[in-house]
Amino acid sequence: MARKEPAADAANPGRLKQIALTYKMTRRADKKIGLVLAAVGIVTFGVFLAIGFLIGHPIYLGILGLLLAFLATAIVFGRRAERAAFGQMEGQPGAAAAVLDNIGRGWTTTPAVAMNRNQDVVHRAVGKAGIVLVAEGNPNRVKSLLAAEKKKMNRIVADVPVHDLVVGTGEGQVELKKLRTTMLKLPRVLSGPQVTSTNDRLRALGDLMSNMPLPKGPMPKGMRMPRGGPNGR
């Protein structure tokens, strides 16, 4: 037991440092985050404390209010931090890949299965909803990329439904912050073994990532595809 205590003590500063870093990153995009969190905590605590005085149990309700104030503050902080993160990622090449990488269990994602020299990209995700092709870039240019990928899918996995989504804020597009939710709402039509079989067949296709090293997450704005690369014609 004595050996575990130093490890726990070392972990706490790491968590606090991570929370502080997240707060600083959030505050860059959300200047009012401090005031909002303070207001949520004070109001929650104040309401329960007032109720405590009314019913004659200010200590008990005060303690409960303090705990709930901390919980409410944490929830609000998490949501605003997530919103700020999506806001900073919005419009950056590769942002959708970062979201897909954290979509959760049951999905196998392959970033950048197709790309052109203008940095329009198509990512692929396979799950119980079938195959989902997620494109980011110019809405007009990604149509050809999606069409080419769908043609490949039909040759190898014609019995699996293929969905296509274009990330953006325009009509018919999916906002980055809603991408994960949209995919999770797709109807589940495949069983676990069928998903595994689909992934095995898709590996035969290969992808851009197997031939060209690319960083995970948003790609540098100055990065360019070499001439003659996949789908670059």
Automatic annotation (TrEMBL):
InterPro entries named in the record: DUF4191
Region (Disordered): 210-233
Compositionally biased spans, kind Low complexity: 219-233
Pfam hit, one: DUF4191
Keyword Membrane: yes
Keyword tags: Membrane, Transmembrane, Transmembrane helix
Chain ranges passing through the membrane: 33-53, 59-78
Coiled-coil annotated spans: none
Keyword Secreted listed: no
Protein name as annotated: DUF4191 domain-containing protein
Organism for this UniProt entry: Streptomyces tuirus
Native organism taxonomy: Bacteria, Bacillati, Actinomycetota, Actinomycetes, Kitasatosporales
